[in-house]
């Protein structure tokens, strides 16, 4: 059988029956809970004991507040984005207008300053409502409402949804037990906190509709940035009205709704006017101020709060990276979801490393040089700058509009939530091939192993490069791998320096042959290089030329490490963190590790400076102003699908690139933007950014590279002309050089013997350099000397060659009719059948 509903008369009779017991009634009134206990129908003694045994201490924890990501805008803290579950800005009572405080107490709890947590008259009124079947309503003091809000707040910060729902039911269900607990806790709060503290807590925790909480955020939201301190009596009453029933009285509803602007916000105005009446009644408002307030219209001007990284516009991708860093920082919680939830609720101020000048330059130059979309090509453009020596990320931009909303993303390729600059687990892509910019790690390993920049290697293109050393898995072969050079240079005997300056692919293949593929990979990893998808770096022959998919930020960090004398610092984007209580919290720090010795870094810088001044990055160098000493390396992937410019001063490293986001094979050399050829956009963007960096940060000379790293120990090439090829090999290798058989060439020496070498006999080159030897095919003869002979005699001497005769006036009769010169000269090797030109003297 269902429980019977109590009638008004039955409840009232029970109430007075209990109160008539004077001793018990006096005790109950003393604790200000008579009506609720009486109407509960509990026995007197057991009721008092039960009530006294209820918990009376309420732990008031910090409120959920707005967290902000900030940056320094020339000495002023500027907000990049805000995050919150509850839009709340906690402020002290002194920062609230008197009208706010008086509106709250006049309408919600006129006897607030007199009772001990429970308003007896109000409780009786509310209890009668409850026990006549109208539910628990009204009658709650501000302290009781504060208690209820605190209990609800505890539920709202729970991460387990089921636990949160159960908690919320316990805190809000209209039951006598819940009301008794609330009253007991209210009495406890009054014992532990002053009236001002309670009123301040209440006005900061109360809901004002939607996600707006607390009087400060409400003033800001509903009245266009107004603060709680500057609210007029009319505005204060309108906001306090919302607290009574946030859904009914809120002021941000569309005009089509009953409570909307089209109806003058009638519901809110009715409640507002009631509050103003009460303020006048309790002499909290003068008649003059009341008349002005009551006559004013309810006129909210909604200021939508900026929340989420999309509000950061061009800096949104930097902002997104910051949020992913926060998700990995144990300061904020045990796992990624908890950390982000705590961040959204914690009221933190996150001060970032963003340099506003470099960021604006990055955004501007990308917008000027690369479109957001391009026909039949999902074009992407990226720019990342890192401070040398600290790892601080100064700028991060790309050519897309930021949105995490799938519906927005579906409207066009100009929208994306993917940060092309970062790793996949940091909100980024699966990475991009860096092309020849990756060659700097082979260069580093080359110098580490003691090879100088001047050392030459076999750099001729070939269909089979043979085996490559690999200490991890044993020697490796890559049949059919036959990379060409970008400008189809034939290559033969390039030095490491020449290969670096002009980015000669075959030169780096020759260098890798003398090194170890696994050690090259180790050196790259020492600079913090890793694949964007989290997989290990590949170490095949093609990886030497940059086929691993790497995030641009990773490459910027590595180039900063080279510029930092070989010490690489992990990237950081947070300079400091301030909690809601104003106390600084330890921020993530950069870890700096020696990647290579400083002398190796100096050798790398020597070569990479010449890439800027003499080589493939010359356009970027010439377009930068002011110029400080700078190092750099270009990169172009197969088919010119992706193009890169990476470089650094001693202060800032910057990587820019134009890429195919979806991997479409578009040759950038065949594509033209409004700004010019797509393939050269990197050389327009990088200088724009580094010009700002050089102006702001300056830059020093890089460390001078030791001579042994540049030229190595110089050794004279031995003369092996006329030797057999095998004998020449032994002679050359004994002298400390590498030997390369260059094949057969025309020569006057006997067939099969060595005709010449590169470098030539008697020249000096570094020990270990490759000497290429060419053997004779015996096809040539040394031209005999015919000067002084008659023309007929000369033709006879030059039998087997064509002879062309020219006359030249002479004054010496002895030269008349005689050959006075010949071309080619006597002693020159020449192939029979060729032509020799002679000049015959003629007098008169």
TrEMBL record:
One annotated GO biological process: proteolysis
Pfam families: PASTA (PF03793), Transgly (PF00912), Transpeptidase (PF00905)
PASTA domain residues: 712-776, 777-842
This protein's name: Penicillin-binding protein
Biased composition (Low complexity): 632-643
Keyword line: Carboxypeptidase, Glycosyltransferase, Hydrolase, Membrane, Multifunctional enzyme, Protease, Transferase, Transmembrane, Transmembrane helix
Stretches that traverse the bilayer: 12-39
Region (Disordered): 617-643
Compositionally skewed regions (Polar residues) per UniProt: 617-627
Reactions accelerated catalytically: [GlcNAc-(1->4)-Mur2Ac(oyl-L-Ala-gamma-D-Glu-L-Lys-D-Ala-D-Ala)](n)-di-trans,octa-cis-undecaprenyl diphosphate + beta-D-GlcNAc-(1->4)-Mur2Ac(oyl-L-Ala-gamma-D-Glu-L-Lys-D-Ala-D-Ala)-di-trans,octa-cis-undecaprenyl diphosphate = [GlcNAc-(1->4)-Mur2Ac(oyl-L-Ala-gamma-D-Glu-L-Lys-D-Ala-D-Ala)](n+1)-di-trans,octa-cis-undecaprenyl diphosphate + di-trans,octa-cis-undecaprenyl diphosphate + H(+); Preferential cleavage: (Ac)2-L-Lys-D-Ala-|-D-Ala. Also transpeptidation of peptidyl-alanyl moieties that are N-acyl substituents of D-alanine
GO CC field: outer membrane-bounded periplasmic space
Gene Ontology molecular-function annotations: penicillin binding; peptidoglycan glycosyltransferase activity; serine-type D-Ala-D-Ala carboxypeptidase activity
PROSITE patterns registered for this protein in UniProt: PASTA
């Amino acid at each position: 059988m269902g429980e019977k509903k109590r009638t008004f008369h039955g409840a009232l009779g029970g109430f007075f029956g209990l109160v008539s017991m004077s001793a018990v009634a006096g005790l109950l009134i003393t604790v200000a809970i008579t009506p609720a206990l009486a109407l509960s129908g509990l026995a007197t003694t057991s009721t008092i004991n039960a009530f006294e045994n209820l918990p009376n201490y309420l732990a008031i924890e910090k409120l959920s507040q707005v967290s902000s990501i900030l940056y320094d805008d020339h000495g002023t803290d500027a907000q990049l984005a805000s995050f919150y579950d509850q839009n709340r800005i906690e402020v002290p009572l002194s920062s609230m207008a008197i009208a706010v405080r008086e509106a709250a107490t006049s309408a919600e709890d006129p006897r607030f300053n007199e009772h001990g947590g429970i308003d007896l008259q109000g409780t009786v009124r509310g209890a009668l409502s409850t026990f006549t079947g109208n539910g628990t309503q009204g009658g709650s003091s501000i302290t009781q409402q504060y208690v209820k809000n605190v209990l609800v707040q505890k539920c709202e910060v729970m991460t387990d949804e089921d636990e949160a729902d159960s908690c919320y039911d316990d805190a809000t269900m209209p039951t006598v037990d819940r009301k008794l607990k609330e009253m007991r806790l209210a009495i406890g709060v009054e014992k532990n906190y002053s009236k001002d503290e309670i009123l301040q807590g209440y006005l900061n925790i109360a809901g004002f509709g939607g996600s707006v909480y607390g009087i400060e955020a409400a003033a800001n939201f509903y009245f266009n940035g107004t603060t709680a301190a500057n609210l007029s009596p009319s505005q204060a009453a309108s906001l306090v009205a919302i607290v009574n029933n946030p859904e009914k009285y809120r002021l941000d509803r569309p005009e089509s709704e009953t409570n909307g602007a089209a109806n003058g916000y009638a519901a809110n105005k009715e409640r507002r006017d009631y509050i103003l009446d009460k303020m006048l009644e309790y002499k909290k408002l003068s008649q003059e101020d009341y008349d002005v307030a009551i006559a004013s219209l309810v006129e909210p001007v909604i200021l939508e709060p900026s929340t989420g990284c999309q509000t950061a516009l061009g800096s949104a991708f930097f902002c997104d990276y910051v949020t992913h860093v926060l998700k990995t920082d144990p300061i904020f919680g045990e796992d990624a979801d908890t950390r982000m939830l705590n961040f959204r609720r914690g009221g933190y101020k996150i001060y970032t490393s963003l340099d506003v000048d470099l960021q604006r330059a990055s955004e501007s130059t990308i917008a000027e040089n690369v479109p957001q979309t391009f026909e039949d090509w999902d074009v992407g453009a990226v720019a990342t700058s890192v401070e040398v020596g600290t790892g601080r990320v100064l700028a991060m931009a790309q050519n897309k509009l930021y949105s995490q909303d799938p519906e927005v993303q579906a409207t066009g390729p100009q929208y994306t939530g993917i940060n092309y600059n970062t790793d996949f687990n940091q909100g980024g892509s699966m990475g991009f091939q860096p092309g020849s910019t990756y060659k700097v790690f082979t260069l580093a390993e080359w110098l580490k192993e003691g090879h100088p920049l001047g050392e030459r290697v076999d750099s001729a293109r070939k269909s089979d490069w043979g085996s490559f050393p690999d200490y991890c898995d044993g020697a490796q072969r890559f049949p059919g791998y036959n990379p060409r050079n970008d400008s189809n240079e034939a290559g033969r005997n390039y030095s490491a320096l020449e290969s670096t300056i002009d980015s000669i692919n075959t030169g780096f293949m020759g260098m890798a042959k003398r090194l170890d593929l696994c050690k090259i990979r180790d050196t790259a990893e020492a600079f913090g290089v890793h694949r964007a998808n989290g997989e290990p770096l590949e170490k095949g022959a093609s990886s030497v030329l940059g086929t691993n998919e790497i995030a641009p930020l990773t490459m910027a960090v590595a180039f900063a490490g080279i510029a930092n004398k070989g010490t690489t610092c992990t990237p950081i984007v947070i300079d400091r963190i301030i909690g809601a209580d104003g106390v600084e919290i330890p921020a993530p720090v950069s870890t700096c590790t020696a990647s290579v010795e400083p002398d190796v870094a100096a050798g790398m810088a020597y070569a990479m400076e010449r890439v800027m001044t003499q080589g493939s990055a010359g356009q970027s160098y010439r377009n930068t102003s002011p110029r400080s000493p700078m190092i750099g390396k270009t990169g172009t992937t197969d088919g010119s699908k992706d193009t890169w410019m990476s470089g650094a001063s001693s202060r800032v490293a910057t990587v820019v690139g134009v890429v195919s986001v979806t991997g479409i094979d578009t040759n950038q050399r065949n594509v033209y933007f409004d700004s010019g050829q797509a393939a050269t956009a990197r050389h327009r963007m990088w200088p724009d950014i580094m010009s700002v960096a050089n102006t702001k940060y300056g830059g020093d000379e890089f460390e001078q590279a030791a001579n042994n790293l540049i030229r190595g120990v110089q050794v004279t090439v031995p003369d092996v002309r006329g030797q057999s090829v095998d004998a020449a090999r032994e002679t050359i290798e004994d002298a400390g050089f590498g030997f390369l058989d260059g094949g057969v060439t025309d020569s006057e020496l006997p067939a099969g013997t060595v005709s010449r070498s590169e470098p030539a006999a008697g020249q000096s080159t570094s020990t270990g350099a490759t000497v290429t030897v060419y053997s004779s095919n015996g096809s040539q003869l040394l031209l005999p000397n015919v000067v002084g002979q008659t023309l007929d005699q000369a033709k006879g001497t030059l039998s087997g060659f064509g002879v062309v005769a020219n006359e030249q006036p002479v004054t010496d009769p002895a030269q008349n009719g005689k050959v006075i010169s010949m071309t080619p000269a006597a002693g020159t090797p020449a192939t029979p059948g060729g032509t020799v030109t002679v000049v015959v003297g003629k007098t008169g």
